C-alpha cells in the first residue's frame, strides 16, 4: 500500500511540474526554449540529477509509455505528404534568380546528411565510444520536426522557398529515420525480431486500415456519430493506434513504429482539423508532458560526469551534429546568402524525440549503457536549446520586404474588373487574362487595366505563359466547366489558393473536394438580398467604403502576449475577429495577441493603415 501511495505521490509531483513549466516559460518570456525541452529540464531538477523527488512506479511507467506512443503517433500525423508533390510554380528570389525545386534540393541535402552521418559514426566506433555504426548514424542524421516547425512558424518562413526546403528535409529525415529504426530493431533485436520480413505484415495492416478508413470516411452516418457522446472519429483513431501498436509488438518491432505508422495512416486520410486539435490537446496537454518530464527524471548527470569517456563523448557528439547538418546546408549557397545557409544548418541540428527513441531502444537491447543513453539524450536537449537561438540570431525576418501577392484573373469581365480596381496595389499584383476583350468593355478595359490576351483557355497553353506562377488564381469565365478544368489544373500546378465560379451543385462539390474555393453569382445574389432584409447593418459594413473589413497580420513581437485591454492603439478601429492557426477567436479585453495572428478589423481607412503599420512593419 505504501508503494502504491508513493507512486501516486510521484505522479502528482510530475503532473504539477508539467502544469507549471509552460506558465514559467510564459512568465519569464523564455520564447526560445521549446516547451518539451523545458519539461526535460524540470525533470532533471525534480529527478535523480536534482532533488530526487520522484520514484518511478507503475502509474508513471504506464503513463510515460503511453505518452511516448502518443508522441510518435502525433509525429506521424504532423507529416504533410502534399509537400512531397512540390510546388511547380517558380518563386523569384530577392537576388532576381529563380528559386530551386524544393523536393530535389531537400532530398539531396538529406542524402548528404545520411552519408556524412555514416562517416562520422565510423569515427566514433573507431574511437571506441560506441560499437554500433547503424545506431549512431540514426542518432546523428535525425532532425526534430517538433522543434523545426514552430521555429519556422515564428520566423514566418514556412511559405518561403527556403522554409519549404528546411521543412521537407525535416519531414524526409523524420520518416526515413523511423523506418530505419524499425529495420535496426529487426536486425539487432535478437531471434524474436530477426525476421525482418515480418515488418511487411505491419505495413500491410497499415495499408489495409487506410483503405477501410477511406471507404467509410465520407459516409453520412460517420459524420452523425462524430458528434455528442459518441465521437466515433476519435474512437477510430485510438483503435488504429492500438491495433498497429499491438501488431508492431507481435512481429518483434518497437511499439513506437506502430504508433508512428498509425499517425501516417491518419494523416493520409486528411482528418477533420477539429479532431486533430482534440488529439493534440489530449496528447500535449496530458500524456506527452509526463513522458518528457520522466525523461529528465531518469537522467543522472552527476554519474555522467564520473565517466571520462562519456564526458569526452558529449562535446564531440555535438560537434558531429553540427558538421552533419552545416556542410549539407552549403548546397543552398547557390541561391541564398551565407546568413540564410548557416541559419538553415543550425536549425537542422535540433533533434529530440527520435534520439530519445533510438537511445531508449539501444539501451533496452543492451547495445549501449544507461549512462550512454543519458548522454545522448542530454546532447539532444542541448541541441534543442542552442539551435533555435542561433537560428533566430542569423535569420532576420526584418530584412524581408512585405510579400505582394500575385493574383491571376482568368476572364476579364464585369465581375472581375471592378474587383481588380479595388484591390490594394501595395498588397496585390494583379494579372488579367482574356481571349478577346469584349467590344463593349474595350475602351474602359484598355484605359484602366493591363489585360493579357491569350489564344484560348487551354490549361497547358496558360501554363506556358506562366499564368499559374501566382499565389492566387481566380477562374471566372462564363463557361463553368472551363472554370473547373482550369481550377483543378491550377491546384495540380501547386497554386496555393484557387477560386472558381461554378453554378451547378455537381461542379461545386467536385471543386471543393479538391481544395478549390467556389463562388456562385446566384448564391451570392440570394445571400446579399437575404442579408439586406435580415441584417442591413452587416451589408453596410461589407459595402460601405468607410466601414470595410480589413485583415492585418500581427508581426510585431513588441505586442506578442499583450492583452487587448492593454493595447496602446486608440484610433477609430474595432477588432472584429482573430484567426490563429485553424482557430477563430472573438476578441475581448482578456484576449492575448500572438505573433502570426490574422486580425479582422473595421474602421476608417486612415486609422486602419496606421494600425497595419504598427502591427505588420514595426519591430
Structure, described:
Strands 3-2-1-4-5-6 form a 6-stranded parallel β-sheet. A 4-stranded antiparallel β-sheet has the order 7-10-8-9, with helices on one face. The protein has 25 helices and 10 strands. The chain has helices at residues 2-27, 35-46, 58-77, 102-126, 133-141, 145-154, 161-188, 199-217, 220-225, 232-250, 255-268, 273-298, 301-304, 308-329, 338-347, 353-364, 370-394, 416-422, 439-448, 459-464, 480-492, 505-513, 521-534, 536-543, 605-617, and strands at 405-410, 428-434, 451-453, 472-475, 497-501, 517-519, 549-553, 573-580, 583-585, 598-603. It has 619 residues and is α/β, with parallel strands linked by helices. The radius of gyration is 27 Å and the shape is globular. Helix 1 packs across helix 2 (35-46) and helix 3 packs parallel to helix 11 (255-268). The relative contact order is 0.09. The chain folds into 3 domains: 8-394, Na+/H+ antiporter like fold; 405-539, NAD(P)-binding Rossmann-like Domain (Rossmann fold, 3-Layer(aba) Sandwich); 548-617, 2-Layer Sandwich (Alpha-Beta Plaits), CATH 3.30.70.1450. It comes from Pontibacillus chungwhensis BH030062. It is a multi-pass membrane protein. It is found in: Membrane.
